[in-house]
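agent> Task received from the user: take the single chain below, predict its 3D structure, and emit structure tokens. No templates, no multimer pairing.
agent> Plan: (1) validate residues, (2) run structure prediction, (3) serialize to tokens, (4) report one or two observations.
agent> Step 1 OK, no nonstandard residues flagged.
tool_call: predict_structure(input=
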Amino acid sequence: MGIKSINPATDQVIKEYNEHTSKEVKEYISKSHLAYESWRRVSYSERALCLVKAAEILRKRKSDYAQLMASEMGKVLKDGESEIEKCAWVCEYYAEQGEEMLADIHVESDATESLVSYQPLGVVLAVMPWNFPFWQVFRFLAPALMAGNGAVLKHASNVTGCALAIEDVITEAGFPKDLFKTLIINSDQVESVISNEHVQAVTLTGSTPAGKSVASIAGKNIKKSVLELGGSDPYIVLEDADIELAAKTCVTSRLINNGQSCIAAKRFIVVSSIKEEFEKQVVSNMKQYTFGDPFNDVNLGTMARKDLRDELHDQVIKSIEMGATLLMGGELKDGKGAYYAPTVLTDVKWGSPAYHEELFGPVASIIEASSEKEAISIANDSFFGLGAAVFTKNIERGKKIAREEIQSGSCFVNDFVKSDPRLPFGGVKGSGFGRELGAFGIKEFVNIKTVYIK
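)
tool_result: status=success, residues=454
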């Protein structure tokens, strides 16, 4: 069976790839395991050199990779180049910090010596999405390789070209042949990959249904899993906020990657006294964005697929039918391409899709709150718990809300949520479990081993 990569701006097939057979998949996993057996004995300094080389290759070819992303999933070129720069950064970060993060910890006990050692697990399966086709992989791959693991990748079918390009980067950077391998497979082969004796763990970034499926299979096979699932990130705007800053930041976050980001601002929860002015500022900011062919000089490209665009539009229409007011956008355009204009909904009601569901596209949902207490309650009234933000001029007030009140894996004050190699990233509730990035991320896929000597 073939796997097609289709340009979402033109509806044209870019390339069709032959799916790997189950026999080929087993062979690739076995080869990755053999490569891991030697790689885990390689020094941290040698591993670091390979990561630094990978960063150099990424930067050298960032224009090419940006064009590849634009073709396969509609990301505008400047955003694609920024994504590659971030991938290079995470490689360099773990090259510099990985050894120290994984250093033995000596513990006082009744032994002559006792310590905690971090040892690699083996081959890890990564199931990754299309929205950040390079970054989502590298934020897992850089720490996993630095820790001494091997890896196989099941990428989203529409970005197979990106997956193979990543494999080329890793090979050219000097990592052992077959240590990292792209598996060109459909979702129906994922269970057999997780069940493979050489696969020791799995990480998934994707939808909640996909996460439930992968976690259940991993659990059945007693294998570690890390899940980064969806989000419906609430951004609370309090009465003492800098409204101009809050509106601009909220819109910037909402339109990241054409609105197709798990940590994009999704629900703007605004106290009543400033709601009208905030709405005006949001609409004004949204109107400054142009959308079109990602190869052109535009702010926004296409959505990744037409079916996703149509699903988003259905959520918008249903929310309006349930009482939301449309301030701008909300229209489908005929013709080629998975385009959807920036859209703003206000007076979003409890029970509607824009209140409860993740709107994965350029749609802002404004929800009114009577007070800080109600705003926090609305923010936490969600199945998701990935990221959040609070806007207030009272920094201590914002810090307390961010630290103690909001149910999310991260909460930013007066800024939009972003991932950073130096800080742990992940969610709670329906947004998953486990962490990527920072010192916590590199320790997800290691054996935390107690060594006791007497």
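agent> Step 4: summary for the user.
The first strand starts at residue 2 and ends at 6.
agent> Done.
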